[in-house]
Design brief:
Strand 3 and strand 4 form a beta hairpin. This protein has a seven-stranded mixed sheet, sandwiched between helices. The chain is of the alpha+beta class.
């Protein structure tokens, strides 16, 4: 059974390990602690019997807009609905607080993530050239909520 809850400081090691193992960027724990304290409802973890399976970290950007910064799911637990559920929970929480648009960036070559986001109603809006540290471009994707 998978349980979804807010990030807690005790989760830091597992979250950093998961982020660095499943994403191409390198992450520092300080970022997670700082944003988790600022936006506790935007930092959701999916926990199974053996630990954290995935997480989503998002923030409020403007009065009516939120942004998903990081979505990571353990490769062994992908395609089981964990990422979809994390996104839906984030959307539900922030729509209740008046958010009307959610934005995110995704690598143009990350077809599985793009398919996931499109299945949730996100649309590709534009490309940001050389967005990632390795020079890869990103799609900006957006969804109207509420």
């Amino acid at each position: 059974m998978i349980h979804f809850r807010n990030f807690e400081h005790e989760d830091l090691f597992d979250v950093v390990r998961l982020a660095n193992a499943s994403l191409q960027e390198s992450y520092d724990g300080g970022l997670f602690l700082q944003l988790g304290d600022l936006y506790p409802d935007g930092f959701i973890v999916a926990e199974g019997p053996n630990g954290i399976l995935g997480f989503l970290l998002g923030v409020v950007e403007r009065a009516y807009e939120a942004r998903i910064l990081i979505l990571a799911v353990d490769p062994r637990h992908r395609k089981l609905g964990v990422g979809s559920r994390l996104c839906r929970l984030f959307e539900e929480r922030f729509a209740r607080s008046g958010i009307r648009r959610i934005n995110l960036e995704v690598r143009v070559a990350n077809e599985p993530a793009i398919r996931l986001y499109e299945s949730l109603g996100f649309e590709r809006k534009r490309v940001i050239d050389r967005y990632y540290a390795d020079g890869e471009d990103a799609y900006v994707m957006s969804k109207i909520v509420g």
